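We emphasize that the prediction below concerns an isolated chain of 192 residues; any contacts that depend on oligomerization or on bound cofactors are therefore not represented. The input was used exactly as deposited, without trimming of termini.
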Amino acid sequence: RRPIALLDVMRKRSLGVKKNEVFSIWDKHSLIQRDNYAFMRGKCLSDAIIIKRLMLKDAKFFKSPLVTIDIDYKAAFDMVPYSIKEMSLRRVGLPEEGIHLWGRHDQSRRQHVRTAFGLTQMPGEGVHPRAGAFGQGAEESPMGFTSLMSWKCDFIDKAIKGKSVGYPCRVDAETTVEISKTLFCDVLSYSC
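Result of the prediction step, given as a C-alpha cell string:
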C-alpha cells in the first residue's frame, strides 16, 4: 500500500476554493470531457458504473454485439511526467503564470514517507519525485488529472470524428443514445 500525503490543512482549504472556481470556468467553456464523471459538480462515479451496467443489460436483452474495454492506469497520479502536466494545463487555458506557480511547487517539493514504523530515513531533506506531477492527496491533483484525461479523450474523439463507434443503447422504443466512453478518474471505459 502507498501512503497518501498529508498536506497542510490551510493550503488544502485555500486551493479547494480556487479549484472549484477553475473547474466552473472549464465546465462553462466545455473544456472538460462531458463523459467525465470524476470530481465534477453534479456528477457521480456511480453514474458511470450504472451507465456501463445498463449497456451490458441492453446488449444481453436485445442480443446485440457489444465490445468494451476498461483501462485502469496503475499508479496514475504518480506516473505523470511534469511536462505532460504542463501541456494538459495549457490545453484548458490555465495562464502561464499559474502553470509557472504550480511548476515552482513541483520543483521544490520534497516527499517524506511515514509508515507504521515512523518517518523513513532518507538522505537529505526528502526525495524529489521524477514523475508524479499530480501528488496523491494534493488538493489540486484531481483538477490537473481531469485536464489530462480530458486531453486524452479529446485526442481519441478527433481520431474517430465522423465515425459511429459507440454502442447504440435504447432509451425507449424510438430513441437510442450512442455511448462510446465513460471516464472516472484514472479509469477509462470504451464501448462499441
